[in-house]
Amino acid sequence: MTSAPPVLTLTESEPEPSTRPLVVTDEPQLLDDLLRLAAAAGVTVDAVADAQLARRYWNNAPLVVVGTDRVTACVAAGLPRRRGVVLISSDLDDGGVWEAAVRIGAEHVAFLPDAEAWMLDLFVDAAESDQRRALVVGVIGGRGGAGATSLAIALALASLRRDLNTVLVDADPLGGGIDLALGIEDRPGLRWPDLTSARGRMPRRIPTEALPSLGDLAVLSWDRISPTAIPPSVMTSMLTGARRGKDLLVVDLPRFPDQAAAIAMQMAEIILVVVPAEVRAIAAAARICDTANRHCADVRVVVRLPGPARLNAVTVSDALALPVAGVLRHDHGLATGLERGEPPGSRRRSSLARVGMRILSDLGLTHSDVAA
Ligand SMILES: Nc1ncnc2c1ncn2[C@@H]1O[C@H](COP(=O)(O)OP(=O)(O)OP(=O)(O)O)[C@@H](O)[C@H]1O
Ligand SMILES: [Mg+2]
User: Fold this and answer.
1) Whose CA is nearest to atom 9 of ligand 1?
2) Residue 2: inside a domain, yes or no?
3) Do residues 283 and 232 both lie within one domain?
4) Banded pLDDT at 5 (limits 50, 70, 90)
5) Are 272 and 301 within 8 A, CB to CB?
6) Same domain, yes or no: 93 and 53
7) Omega of the bond prior to 80 within 30 degrees of 0, cis?
């Protein structure tokens, strides 16, 4: 039998066990397929053909993928039973596979190419369990026109100013496209319609570099074409991919969440509800906050002042029984700036910029935790 060379050359002196997924196979085709899937998932794997070499990685790997060709060798090498072992075969008619699965204590048996998508997700999950991911913050208006989109943008720009790796996602199909509010509507890059109308299977991982950007800010936006619903799986996939290796992911949420927006709410660690200090806005916001709270445990209000009856932030917070994340004062240049394609919060001294900075500090986002 010809041996496929190990992907990493392992020597006795290699010090630390790896926390990368481990692939054990001596079949070149199977190895090729698994490496291709790992690359698509953006993970590096340790791949070995020799069961004795596998021992070094066996216990610490978040995931172990064993080809049917190496089961006997692994069992003979006395590798201990562990969780997260996947037995992989490229032969659907292999009658011995189930017996082999029992021998090695596999949690799953998968056949390629049928299980490619499943395997890809498994690699992604394994990588994410060991990787830093962005804090996901949702922003939603307590009533129409409250200032949610403006705050989402201001937060993202404040984050950029702190050199944080930031992604801004427009999850409001009826918002007109957040790219317009940023003045980047002419920039090339993928937008939601490109991702939802693609024929056939969408590539599951789209790099943020493929999105339009404002400086270093990657933006996933709607455009001016009539929106179609984002399939929940596409939202999950995009947010999961976009938060990998980033510091902050800001999602502009619609007030009436569709399925995709509900997923975004569930993925958010914090939801900020922008509430103008008005009696009717508070009444409307109460319902929005209830919905947000059903999906996310940490919902906070950002109070927009001044209101016509001079209600203050504490009154709004008490009425909604939610903590105040910030106070947003009237930003004089905002409306005219928006008409000129000047993003909200782009002027450092504006109320939006300041509240954005303040919220980031409260969230502990003061510097990038992600290695450049
Ligand atoms: N802090 C602010 N100061 C002054 N005007 C503001 C402020 N925030 C928002 N506005 C005004 O309100 C308008 C709506 O803002 P924005 O689009 O951010 O609200 P929204 O809550 O996202 O609205 P929608 O319900 O359409 O999603 C802006 O065009 C701007 O004129
Ligand atoms: Mg909006």
Assistant:
1) 147
2) no
3) yes
4) very low
5) yes
6) yes
7) no
Q: In the predicted model, what is the mean pLDDT of the chain? A: 87
Q: What residues line ligand 1, using a CB cutoff of 6 Å?
A: 141, 144-150, 172, 175, 328, 330-331, 334-335, 338, 351-352
Convert the pLDDT of each residue in 321-363 to its tens digit. Answer: 999 999 999 998 899 998 888 999 999 999 999 999 999 999 9
Neighbours of ion ligand 2 (CB under 5 A): 148-149, 175
Q: How many angstroms is it from 172 CA to the middle of ligand 2?
A: 7
pLDDT for the residue numbered 201: 43
Count Cβ atoms within 10 A of the Cβ of residue 187 and give its class: 0-12 exposed, 13-18 middle, 19 or more buried. middle
DSSP 267-334: H-SEEEEEEESSHHHHHHHHHHHHHHHHH-S-EEEEEE---TT---HHHHHHHHT--EEEEE---TTH
Ligand 1 center from residue 153 Cα (angstroms): 11
Q: What is the pLDDT of residue 209?
A: 86
- Residue 190 sits in the same domain as residue 301: yes
Taking the C-alpha atoms of residue 122 and residue 21, their distance in angstroms, rounded to an integer, is 10
Residue where one domain finishes, among candidates 80, 100, 126? 126
Count CA atoms closer than 13 A to 179's CA, side-chain side.
Answer: 22
| Residue of minimum CA distance from atom 16 in ligand 1 | 147
371 to each of 45, 56, 297, 367, how far by Cα in Å?
A: 20, 27, 29, 11
Residue 88 belongs to some domain of the structure: yes
Per-residue model confidence as pLDDT tens digits over 76-134: 999 998 988 999 998 877 778 989 999 999 988 999 988 888 888 788 777 766 567 89
Q: DSSP readout, 40-101?
A: HTT---EEES-HHHHHHHHTT-S-EEEEGGGHHHHHHTTPPP-SSEEEEES-TT-TTHHHHH
